[in-house]
Amino acid sequence: EREPVTPGPGEHALQFAYTFWFTPRFPGRQASSLNFEQNIKYVGTVASVEQFWAYYSHMGRPGDLTGHSDLHLFKDGVKPMWEDPANKEGGKWIVRLRKGLASRAWENLILAMLGEQFMVGEEICGAVVSVRFQEDIISVWNKTASDQATTSRIRDTLKRVLNLPPNTIMEYKMHLDSLKDNSSF
Amino acid sequence: GTRIIYERHELLQLRNSPLTR
Questions:
Q1: What is the tens place of the pLDDT at every residue in B1-21?
Q2: What ipTM score was computed for the predicted complex, to two decimals?
Q3: Sign of the alpha-carbon dihedral angle for A15, A128, A45, A52
Q4: Which residues of A touch B11 (CB under 8 A)?
Q5: Which helix (H) or strand (E) is A105 found in, with range?
Q6: Is there a contact between A10 and B4 if contact means CB atoms under 8 Å apart?
């Protein structure tokens, strides 16, 4: 158990504290939830804008990461796993990006999330950028996959903040389906 | 309660705040 993180004196508080996690991926190894949990590394928790920049400025950009890895930013207390109580009824929007676009897209996404630009109450759980060899994948996780008004609003905000070409394909996947077929994308 | 909302440019402005360690 960690001590709760709070904004420092004079800092600009965020609506929610968020935690960065990092997962190096090893191609070919079966990703069971057990080894996923063992493999995921806690990076740090931020409760203010200043704390966010302090971490973010020292972290590698998704576009600079090589091989397979995932960078997660989730509300503090929510693990970036399908099985977490906040996630198990939820799902995610998936956006596939060609190489070279991930760093900017990731920054735009997490600034929108930290700034509460999605306007969907408590529905946002977190965001992930997955670095792969051929492409990068960005996803936004929410609590209630069956809430269509919310998922539509998240999709529209995501389109706006990522500023992607109109033909970009966005796919919604329920975590229950990910659990069933044991695949993330 | 009131939500704490930041526009992108507001967050970017705070990037170089002296409080950012």
A1: 689 999 999 999 999 776 654
A2: 0.89
A3: negative
A4: 49, 52, 111, 114-115
A5: helix A102-114
A6: no
